[in-house]
Design brief:
- It is a single chain.
- The protein contains 11 helices and 9 strands.
- The chain has 252 residues and is α/β, with parallel strands linked by helices.
- The strands form 2 sheets. A 6-stranded parallel sheet has the order 1-2-3-4-5-6. A 3-stranded antiparallel sheet has the order 7-8-9, with no helix packed on it.
- Helix 4 packs parallel to helix 5.
- The longest helix has 19 residues.
């Protein structure tokens, strides 16, 4: 099948679950009026996104250079009022108490977490919040990798993702991110595979439909040319995919 024809067919089969991240940083033109930008988010942007049905979740980056705990609590409450469950960029550059906030607001997931405290992890576990580790961002921002064993000892589900963006994680190569999670975050290949499938599905509230091979779920499957998950992630193959199935239909 020609590449463009395959890409078109594949794209039609994708399911995108959107998150509204208007609160990643205060735009330059709003720096002199920070409160005005927060009001714009709460009074105009979030209601408009909800009205158009553009996002299922609302996210805030909590950091000294981004949004405070109080600002995030306010923004996420408005998002929840409009039907968007909270997510958080949490404790990436310092322990700002964002992991505890994620638990407080019943966030479905919290990303990064390199500097989160054990108390924050315990609170997240009690709330059922998924910890999402992003190895590409860790190495590009030059912060110490999070030891995922700390999350697991707290009882936290751990997901793995690329954080694909042009600033701190300019790669969408999920298998390489998975290999890095083994090397940097002290996870086994089996734990990482689970983190990129069923735990990742939990992080977007879709574990009942995708993320594992079970009766009643979508048959979204990847056929790999590898002896085992250990061999696949150890070798860091550029593209080991030999078959792609979406809802049981082979696309490649």
């Amino acid at each position: 099948m020609p590449l463009l024809q395959w890409a078109s067919k594949s794209t039609r089969s994708l399911k995108i679950v959107s998150t509204f991240l208007g609160a990643h940083t205060v735009p330059r033109e709003w720096k002199p009026n920070r409160e005005g930008y927060v009001r714009l988010l709460c009074e105009s942007m979030i209601p408009a996104v909800a009205h158009e049905g553009l996002a299922r979740f609302c996210d805030v980056f909590v950091d000294r250079s981004a949004f405070s705990i109080d600002e995030a609590r306010r923004i996420l409450a408005i998002g929840l009022r409009h039907g968007m469950r909270p997510k958080l960029h949490a404790d990436q550059l310092a322990d700002d108490g964002a992991a505890a906030l994620a638990a407080e607001v019943n966030a479905i997931s919290a990303d990064h977490l390199e500097f989160a405290s054990d108390a924050g992890f315990a609170a997240m576990a009690k709330a059922g919040t998924v910890a999402v580790l992003l190895p590409f961002a860790t190495i590009n921002v030059h912060v110490p990798p999070l030891d995922a064993r700390r999350c697991m000892r707290a009882g936290l589900p751990v997901a793995i993702a690329t954080d694909f963006n042009p600033g701190s994680a300019p790669s969408y190569h999920l298998p390489f991110a998975m290999s890095l999670a083994c090397a940097l975050n002290r996870m086994s290949p089996a734990e990482v595979l689970k983190g990129a499938t069923i735990q990742a599905a939990k992080a977007i509230g879709m574990e009942g439909e995708v993320g594992s091979i079970e009766p009643g779920k979508h048959a979204d499957l990847l056929l790999l040319n590898a002896e085992s998950v250990d061999h696949w992630l150890y070798h860091a193959t550029a593209n080991a995919a030999k078959g792609v199935f979406v809802k049981g239909v082979r696309l490649r």
